[in-house]
Structure formats: C-alpha cells, structure tokens
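Below sits the subject:
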Amino acid sequence: PKHATPPPKPPPGPLRIASGIFPQPKLLTRQQEAQGLHQLCFVEEIDTLNKSNRGGKYNDKGDMYRNAWDNASYSQDYMSDSTFSGRVNLFLNILATGTPEQVMKFYDNPENGLISRISICPIANQEYASIPVWSELTDDEQREFNDVMDYADALTYTTDDEGVESIKPRTDITDGMLFIHHPLEAWLEEKRLLALRTQDQALDHFRKREAVKMFRMAMVCYGCFSGNLTDANRQDITDFCLWWGEQDLKNLTDLYGEMVKDTMQRSYSKKDDIFARLADTFTAADVEKARTEAHIATPTKVIVYRWKKAGLIAKDEENNLYRKLADSDTVTPVTR
C-alpha cells in the first residue's frame, strides 16, 4: 500500500539483555545477531516465562533452554520466509525469581533434562525482616571487580579490526583446572554409593549433572583469581565448589523429589536406607522384605548384585548368608 508503515529498523549491534517474553523465531534471530556473545534474561517473576510458553508447541522453548546450557546448536526449518529457518548456537543465561509453585510450573518435566540443568537458590523467609540497605562499592572494590571482568573478557572474547567482538576458545582455563578433577571424582563416588545404598534414583540422576555444575563453578572462581592461583587458592576453590554442589543438590532433590517419584512411579525421593535396616549378616529374603516395605521397584537380585560389585557386602557361600563390609554410616569407596 502507498501509505504502509515501513518495517522497523533492526537495533544497532547485538542485544545483550533479552526480554522475558519472546517467541522462538525472535529468540533465534537475536541469538544469530549476537554472534556468539551471551544474552542475559532477568525475570523478576518466573510467571512471565510461563506466559511466554502458553502459546502451544510453537512457543515451547524447553529444548532451546536445555541446549543453551551447553551452548549447543538449535535448528528449525519452515517453508515460510516470515519466520526463522537455520541453525544457531545458543548462548542464553536466565535468572528468574518466583515462588516454589511457579518455579515447578515452569520446570515441570523431570524427564526432559532441563530440571537437572538449573540451580535453585531458596531465599530465606523474609517475614518481618527489615529492608536491606546496600552500600556502594569502594574504589578498591570497584577496581578489583573491573580487573576480574577485564581478565574474563580477555579469556573469552576477541575483537577484530572493525571493533566486532566474537567468542574464542578458553583452553588456558581448562588446562589449569586439573586440580579439581580428583575431588569431583571422589564426590561423585560418595554420592553413587549413597544412592546405591538407599536406592535413591533421584540422587543418582542429579549427582551426575551436579558434578558438571561444580566444575563450571570452579572455572568461574579460577577466573576471579585472574589465573594466578596458589595452592591455598586451589583448596579454597575446591572447598567452595563442593559446598555449593551439596547445597544445590539438596535444593533440587527437596523441590523435585516428589515430582520425580510421581512421574517415574517409583520412590526416587524416599530416603529409606534399606542397607542400614539390615543386620550385619542377612539373607536375600531379608533384602526382599526391606525392599518391599520401602516400596522400591528394583529387583532384589539387582540390589544384591550392585552391593557386591560396590564392595559393600560379601557372600558366605557355606551358610548362604551375606555379610556387610561397611557399616550403615560409613561406606568404604570402591578401589578402582
């Protein structure tokens, strides 16, 4: 038409702050324009994201959020030229607040892999609490903050002659992270044996991705020291990441244990320690009784086999009895 309104011009440069309400094509377009730079999405009420996803399958961005956790690629193809078609790597970080009910409404499927890729940070009860007053950073604090950010940007981004930023590999960070490997392996084995002993499949599921989160947390801490780490710094980073992982794992299992239980139709969140129930010597019938009382679906033969393989029990062939090699409170790690 003669007097048609011209289409709006695209904004200059990539948008780093994303809106909480966006359709899939627009998000993919923004990600393509960002050229590998992370976009941040701050949502004061997570219900805003819930509203954004209510437009049917076309607006369900669960797969996109899951891929963004690994900066993996996402693609779609449509015949229409009016929507996005193509493949793009996703760099998106979301920070949202909301009540437990609203959070669980948004992250509502324990089987799609998204729940284990989020971190829950409960806020203490603020009833009758006084209004917090935040002080400004001192010059030294601001200078230290700027130094850390400059170092992180130097590791992550490169700028061409025209002033365009792009992503670059962070090999020097990963090479310097070897000190965290052994503590994470020990933590994983500790949680594996605990999950095996209690038959807590939710704990076994969440612990694996939690170790990845702790490694990433260690990378952030590494960057905060500008790469100049002493042995004391490495120990501080290790202690902090293990503490943070314990808290995050507990928050996930506390919030989503019952949902996992209902979805999988198993007592994943039930912490009945059937290993602790048993006497120092026991029979397969004793395990069967404890398993049944705890509503655990795993067959008795499988439970006994896993305990033997983990070095928790040994069998007395002469008397057809099983004998504990670890008490109910302390589990000796398996020697590899």
Remarks:
- Residues 266-270, 331-336 have pLDDT under 50 and may be disordered.
- The radius of gyration is 25 Å.
- The longest strand covers residues 39-43.
